[in-house]
Specification:
Length: about 550
């Protein structure tokens, strides 16, 4: 037996941690991975495991001491069986590799002699080859499915002894018929694995002897290349990201030893999601630790409930396989808008109320102001009327002029009425805010909305000019459409969508009259607003007369 140091392993980025508990004492016998002591960082408590099996001879730290990666915390006498690999994971990995190589050699020796090709096909029952003296080895993975077409030496099942994990290869090329075992079954030499239909076309004969012509050599060449390709793809593949997790393909192979599989089970890590860095993409303990650390880091940075954490993202295909593509970076505005829309959609329970407003009289009144507008140098559009109508509805139904503070369980009621107007620009959608809409006249609103819209198109809006809205109006009337469902711009609780007005026959009690009808779409946060209130809001908008709006919107100061 040899004495070795017990050192602090990688602490997941923590510089220094405090010893809060010593679990073992001098003279205690421990197994590999048994906890030695517990340390605590500012984020978590972690048990430091024994690097191998043996007897503790000395503990060199006490409760309250600060330690970091590489510090010696004790000494131990390694047992005879574990002295070689107690200090690191690499010898263990090498031992496992050797063990698997031995198993493969045994399997090759015990592989049934291939039969001469005679054309057609035949039924074969594949049996378990020699397992180097092991009996009752459990099946941990079935690598094929009934109906699969496989080549000779393709792995059929993976079994795990107490020393190594090994794959049992197919002795034939052909089609898998009935699978005779299940995961968890225990196998011994000679047990039946599956039935398969073997294609007799010369493939087995070529296996029995060295290739005698160039043709078989050509057939054999692609195999190493096909093995290298997945390996390269695996190396270039990005590490799994919690929210963008791509499920493993059925029958995906996992190369990992028993110790690594045990560690993964203890940590709750799915080996199919982990990219192996060892030989032949073998998964090591370091790979498992790195994967777990990345998942913990994502959870801590996280994206939390407020951003829709836990909802899987969309894994994009390689579009270049379908045709020519060009990639370009998102603009800052586009990226910010996309994030805001996603956040609002994920966090707000959206409902949309639809209404048709009769704007025939309003349009006649608006057009009558054309001469006055020319004198003032201001064009009177429908927008100022919509702004005053919404300000009136917000004043009459103040439950629309709130924000919800879910953390503090409070409703924030606003004593002001600021309304955002969505402006379509070449650079993306921008929403400048008109303040104190209820206190401004129609001509003032017409001038201010036109000025802000132009500043938005010229990219001259200041951040302060896009903040503080209580409510938003977004209009598609100049483009077309009959209705749509706008997304609430949280922390606001409602948004009004306006579509293109159209002449419609409306029954007046005696006959149908042609009336200009404006489609309204009111989306709202159902946590703050109920359906009855939404119906009242759109009703207020649709019933406001132009003269009433004009009186409410008479300018308080002249526009020079």
């Amino acid at each position: 037996m040899s004495e070795q140091e017990i050192k602090v392993p990688d602490l997941g980025g923590a510089d220094e941690v405090e010893v809060i508990e010593i679990i073992v004492s001098a003279g205690d016998s421990v197994e590999e991975e048994d906890p030695i002591l517990t340390v605590e960082s500012d984020k978590a408590s972690v048990e430091l495991p024994s690097p191998g099996a043996g007897k503790i001879t000395k503990i060199t730290v006490k409760v309250g001491d600060k330690v970091k990666e590489g510090d010696v915390v004790g000494m131990m006498e390694a047992s005879a069986g574990g002295s070689d690999d107690a200090g690191s994971d690499e010898p263990e990995e090498k031992a496992e590799e050797k063990e698997e190589a031995k198993q493969e050699e045994k399997s090759e020796e015990s592989k049934p002699a291939p039969k001469k090709a005679s054309g057609g096909s035949r039924k074969e029952t594949v049996k378990v080859p020699a397992l180097d003296g092991f009996d009752n080895v459990p099946v941990i993975e079935i690598n094929v499915a009934e109906g699969d077409t496989i080549e000779a030496d393709d792995p059929l099942v993976t079994v795990e002894s107490d020393k190594a994990t090994m794959e049992i290869p197919s002795p034939y090329a052909g089609k898998v018929g009935k699978i005779l075992v299940s995961e968890g079954d225990k196998l011994s030499e000679g047990d039946e694995l599956l039935e398969m239909t073997v294609q007799e076309g010369g493939g087995e004969e070529e296996e029995a002897s060295e290739p005698a012509s160039e043709e078989p050599a050509k057939e054999e060449k692609p195999e190493p290349r096909s093995e290298e390709k997945p390996k390269q793809e695996a190396e270039s593949a990005p590490e799994p990201q919690g929210a963008t997790y791509e499920p493993p393909s059925p029958g995906a192979k996992v190369h990992a030893g028993p110790a690594v599989r045990k560690l993964a089970r203890e940590l709750g890590a799915d080996l199919t999601r982990i990219k192996g860095s060892g030989p032949k993409s073998r998964i090591t303990k370091d790979d498992v630790h790195a994967y777990v650390k990345s998942q913990l880091k994502q959870a801590q940075q996280g994206t939390g409930v407020a951003t829709g954490s836990g909802i899987p993202g969309v894994k994009l295909p390689d579009f270049s396989q379908f045709g020519e593509v060009k990639r370009e970076a998102m603009s800052r505005m586009m990226f910010a808008t996309a994030n805001n829309m996603q956040r609002s959609w994920l966090n707000v329970p959206h409902v949309t109320q639809f209404e048709d407003a009769d704007i025939t009289d309003m349009e006649d009144f608006r057009k009558a102001q054309k001469a006055a507008g020319e004198k003032k140098g201001v064009k009177m559009t429908p927008l100022p009327f919509l702004l005053k109508a919404c300000a009136t509805a917000l004043a009459e139904l103040p439950q629309f002029n709130v924000s919800l503070d879910m953390e503090r369980k409070e409703v924030v009621r606003k004593k002001y009425i600021h309304i955002g107007i969505a402006v379509d620009t070449p650079h993306g959608l921008m929403v400048p805010v008109i303040r104190d809409v209820d206190k401004k006249g129609l001509w003032e609103l017409a001038a201010e909305s036109a000025e802000l819209a132009q500043k938005a198109r010229d990219k001259q809006l200041k951040p302060a000019e896009m903040q503080g809205a209580c409510f938003t109006i977004t209009s598609l009337g100049g483009i077309g459409g009959t209705a749509f469902t706008p997304i609430v711009n949280t922390p606001e609780v409602a948004i009004l969508g306006v579509s293109k007005a159209a002449m419609k026959p409306v029954w007046d009690g005696k006959e149908f009259q042609p009336r200009l009808m404006l489609p309204l779409s009111l989306s709202y946060d159902h946590r703050a607003v109920n359906g009855a209130d939404a119906a009242r809001f759109t009703t207020v908008l649709s019933q406001l007369s132009p003269t009433r709006l004009w009186r409410r919107g008479r300018a308080r100061r002249p526009i020079s």
